[in-house]
Specification:
Elements lengths: L15 H15 L6 E2 L11 H13 L16 H12 L11 E4 L2 H7 L10 E5 L3 H9 L6 E2 L2 E2 L3 E4 L17 E5 L11 H13 L3 E5 L25 E6 L12 E4 L5 E3 L5 E3 H12 L5 H8 L4 H28 L2 E4 L5 E5 L4 H12 L1 E2 L1 E2 L10 E5 L4 H15 L1
Parallel strand pairs: 1-15, 3-6, 3-7, 7-8, 8-9
Antiparallel strand pairs: 2-10, 4-5, 9-10, 11-12, 13-14, 14-17, 16-17
Helix pairs in contact: 2-8, 3-8, 4-5, 9-11
The structure holds D-malate.
The site of D-malate has 7 residues, from loops.
Length: 407
């Protein structure tokens, strides 16, 4: 008799963004005349930068001729892309990361979801609340949690991110082994200072723990004092894995390319207390389960690092930051408490009521889709997240509708 992985039954009915999409589709069916403005899921709307498109086209043409055609590429990614990443995203910032410590992939969602396979079942995991649901759900699927009780999974150490701590969680009181951090943060848009990030690195070093640092929103950092990579912090290479994505930085949500950095010094312990390099374990997994990102997509990603690519991706991020500023202004006018939107495409707003009620109200009264904060965890209740990923026109229109509906 075939039996299931019972841990799946502990999961909430559906993935947050699928749930929202279903509610929005039902609303649209009942109200076909309303033009819905989507500021919910963080999905980009602007076209790929010209430099990426040109490189993409050129690489597709190469695939059309026998002399330049490419079959399977290296599972870890082509050297041209890994070298460009190491030089631009790390070495240029004084972080000593080498090309062979980079694993190119088809998404940070997959990488942050899959990485937990490297660790044993009985580790203690610390996860922020609110949080990008993937970190939590993949550990639930793997059987590292107990049941879901009162909005939380038993066995997880939740790191509350609240107004009181400026949405940067405090170090856990108990000893944990694996820590998920994301800055600039999804969903709150909050940022972490170098000094704060250092306390986490120091904690991980002291407790033989590992930090999984999701930096998918790094391109939006404008405050020059903020760290762009965890490897700017001394000692992080031994205790941190970093995830990056071209989804938000270059508009690749539909093109798919990301990467994970696992420094060679980064280790975890085996049952005998020996240190095992995570780089070789992930390499083994990657080669077994993944056949690499397509050649044209990797060429398009490489173009992000050309002079034109750098200018164009910066302009792209500025475009969305302009929207985030409009959202912030509207929330200020409405008198809501909010954070984010300055070094992040997300604005986290306290609507003073249940987040799903607020979500429904905005949809029904203004035709605007946001993301209910409660979907990101218990500490998200009372909040909604508004994403800046849309056109200037639509964001302005949405803010006007919100003001009309709420004031
Ligand atoms: C979000 O809306 O939180 C993001 O789009 C999720 C993702 O990048 O997978």
């Amino acid at each position: 008799m075939i039996t299931i992985n019972e841990h799946y039954l502990k999961l909430q009915a559906s993935y947050l963004f699928s749930d929202i999409a279903k509610r929005v589709a039902a609303f649209q069916e009942q109200n076909p005349e309303i033009e819905i403005i989507k500021l919910g899921i963080g999905d980009v709307t602007r076209p790929l930068p010209r430099a990426c498109i040109d490189a993409f086209h050129k690489a597709v043409e190469e695939m059309a001729s026998e002399a330049s055609f490419r079959g399977y590429g290296p599972e870890q990614g082509y050297a041209f892309l890994r070298e460009a990443i190491a030089a631009n995203d790390f070495q240029a910032r004084g972080a000593d990361i080498q090309a062979d410590e980079i694993f190119v992939s088809d998404g940070a969602k997959c990488d942050t979801g899959n990485i937990q396979e490297l660790f044993s079942q009985d580790i203690k995991i610390a996860i922020p609340d609110p949080v990008y649901p993937v970190y939590l759900d993949t550990n639930v699927m793997a059987g590292r949690t107990g049941a879901y009780v009162d909005g939380r999974y038993q066995g997880i150490v939740y790191l509350d991110s609240t107004k009181e701590n400026n949405f940067v969680p405090a170090l856990p009181r108990e000893k944990v082994d694996l820590i998920y951090l994301c800055f600039p943060n999804n969903p709150t848009g909050s940022t972490i200072s170098t000094a704060e990030l250092k306390t986490w690195v120091d904690y991980a070093r002291e407790h033989q723990a590992l930090i999984l640092f999701d930096a998918a929103y790094e391109i939006f950092i404008r405050d020059q004092s903020l760290p762009h990579t965890i490897y700017e912090i001394e000692g992080a290479k031994e205790v941190a894995i970093e995830f990056r994505s071209y989804s938000k930085s270059a508009g690749f949500t539909g093109t798919r390319c990301a990467y994970t950095v696992i420094p060679k010094e980064c280790t975890a312990y085996d049952r005998n207390g020996g240190r095992q390099p995570l780089h070789s374990l992930w390499n083994r997994r990657h080669c077994t389960k993944f056949n690499g990102v397509s050649y044209p997509v990797q060429r398009a990603a490489e173009a992000v690092y050309s002079e034109e690519g750098k200018t164009q991706t910066r302009e792209l991020a500025d475009y969305y930051l302009h929207n985030a500023a409009s959202v912030r202004r509207a929330m200020q006018d409405l008198g809501f408490f909010f954070v984010g939107g300055e070094n992040s495409p997300y604005v986290w707003i306290n609507g003073g009521r249940d987040s799903w009620d607020f979500f429904d109200m905005l949809l029904n009264k203004a035709g605007v889709v946001c993301t209910p904060g409660a979907g990101f965890g218990r500490c998200g209740n009372g909040y909604i997240r508004i994403s800046a990923f849309n056109s200037h026109e639509k964001v302005e229109k949405a803010m006007k509708r919100l003001k009309d509906a709420l004031s």
